[in-house]
UniProtKB/TrEMBL annotation:
Catalytic center residues: 8 (proton donor/acceptor), 10 (proton donor/acceptor)
Gene: pgmB
Residues binding substrate, per UniProt: 8-10, 24, 43-48, 51, 75, 113-117, 144
Pfam families in alphabetical order: Hydrolase (PF00702)
Co-factor: note: Binds 2 magnesium ions per subunit.
Stated name of the protein: Beta-phosphoglucomutase
Keyword terms of this UniProt record: Carbohydrate metabolism, Isomerase, Magnesium, Metal-binding, Phosphoprotein
Length: 217
């Protein structure tokens, strides 16, 4: 049976994509080009520096590493300012209820996020107490689709991969889960998340019964 749930943060538990977008767009404007919401789709689940590379390629710019470091820092300062105002009202539909259900059913929980800002977001939204382990972008050396973040989460929980289910909204995250040997539920659209074992619109559509059904497959 399933013993643990591993959650991505951005796009699964909270809607921070809009803040990442605001900050990247502001940076693009300073650099003199437009960055659309459609361009922003390519950044979901991608690490900060890899996101900057995608943004710069949209603007047709090639910059030195030290300049890139400075730009990434500038973007992050704006982002941190936006998320400092977040509260529990920004938890996505069904997320809190499902985390509570995990607790009531004795399932262990871990966060598996690429974001170095994950701890502040959990704190501001009041989600920290719902996690037995928190793996954020400061704790891994390889980004998704590398399975490191989920393997580390499972090992901290002391649960084998085959007893874990990952919740992800990004293709790279689903690949990471599969490479970790874990079952995976996609949150979003089957068009992009087809590699997941199941795809649902939100955590409101997930139950512990569904997890045990997955385990039997
Ligand atoms: C992921 C987001 O969770 O974290 C990406 O989906 C983001 O958009 C990445 O770039 C890194 O986040 P941060 O907060 O460390 O810049
Ligand atoms: Mg995500």
């Amino acid at each position: 049976p399933i013993q643990a749930c591993l959650f991505d943060l951005d796009g699964v538990l909270v809607d921070t994509a809009k803040y990442h977008y605001l900050a990247w767009k502001r940076l693009a404007e300073e650099l003199g080009f437009e960055f659309t919401e459609q361009d922003n789709e390519k950044l979901k689940g991608v690490s900060r520096m890899a996101s900057l590379d995608i943004l710069l390629s949209v603007g047709g710019l090639q910059l030195e590493d030290n300049v890139k470091q400075e730009l990434a820092e500038r973007k992050n300062n704006w982002y941190v300012e936006y998320i400092s105002r977040m509260d529990a009202s920004e938890i996505l539909p069904g997320a809190l209820e499902f985390l509570q259900q995990c607790r009531e059913n004795g399932l262990k929980t871990a966060l598996g996020s690429a974001s170095k800002n994950a701890p502040i977001i959990l704190q501001n939204t009041g989600l920290t107490p719902y996690f037995d382990a928190i793996i954020d972008g400061t704790r891994t050396s390889s980004a998704k689709p590398d399975p490191e973040v989920f393997l580390l989460g499972a090992s901290e929980l002391g649960v084998p991969s085959e007893a874990c289910v990952v919740f992800e909204d990004a293709e790279a995250g689903i690949e990471a889960a599969r490479r970790a040997g874990m079952r995976c539920i996609g949150i979003g659209s089957p068009d992009t998340l087809g590699e997941a074992n199941r795809v649902v619109a939100s955590l409101g559509d997930v139950s512990v019964a569904l997890l045990q059904q997955l385990a039997a497959e």
